[in-house]
Amino acid sequence: MPVYVYSITPAAHPCRLEGLDGVGAEPAPVRAITAGQLCAVVSDIDEEIRPKRRDLTAHQAVQERLMSDGTILPLQFGYTAPDDEAVTQVLQERADGYLDVLERLRGCAEYHVKASQDEDALLREILHDSDRARLLNDRIRAGDADPRLPLELGEIVAGEVQERQESLAAGLVRSLVSLAGDHRVHPPTGDDILSISLLVQDDHRDAFLKAEARLAEQVENVHFRFSGPLPPYSFV
To answer: What is the C-alpha to C-alpha distance for residues 200 and 74, in angstroms, rounded to an integer?
Structure first.
């Protein structure tokens, strides 16, 4: 029977799965398949699993329960296998690699940081610093109808915005990665200038969170969004 695979753990992990609902319209019990030094946490499925809110919540609940008791190798939503035998075979064939990753993740959690910048404040900064941009802006505001003016001003502002945001993001990355054992920089989306995942040892968590708070206070006109501790999806 097909199974949905949530996570891989060491065989010594307690795998407290009581009371957890699996994914699917009619969730099956969440259970563990053991092979040598590893376990895979799975549940039976009889349908194609899609990223519905209920199933995403069930998937995350399993990860959080497992993570509260020890190191896990969390799988992204949607991983399935044909049956228990296929799962056992993969655990056996890839045991060394999985054990290496589990050792690297031992005692760690993922934290995610996103940052966006106040665009109005950035524009004021550019107009203050750039004589040419300020002159063009003053001429436009005074009623100069030359169609070349907004085009040139737009090019200057776009170039300055890109340069300054890239420089700011690089500086934020340097500040954050010094506090983590590993990191992954993701392409920012929307209005964000930064999206980064950090792997932090549990015994460094308090220092990391305090450093995050200090950074948010020190950097002007930047809005930070911090999340964590999370299962270390980005480092599997």
So the answer is: 16
Q: How far apart are CA 158 and CA 1, in angstroms?
A: 56
C-alpha separations of 138 from 13, 77, 142, 188 in Å: 67, 53, 6, 33
Report the alpha-carbon distance of residue 57 to residue 71 in Å, rounded.
20
| pLDDT tens track for 87-96 | 999 999 999 9
Q: And the tokens for 139?
A: 């001429």
Give residue-wise pLDDT tens across range 143-181: 888 888 889 888 988 898 888 888 888 988 888 888 888
Q: How confident is the model at residue 211 (pLDDT cuts 50, 70, 90)?
A: confident
Quick count: other Cβ atoms within 10 Å of Cβ 5? 18
Give yes or no: residues 114 and 222 share one domain: yes
Domain identity same for 15 and 63? yes
**19 and 132 co-located in one domain:** no
Name the residue range of residue 137's domain.
109-235
Q: How far is CA 224 from CA 15, 116, 192, 220, 233, in A?
A: 35, 7, 9, 11, 21
The answer to whether residues 45 and 4 touch, using CB atoms and an 8 Å cutoff, is yes
**How many domains is the chain built from?**
2
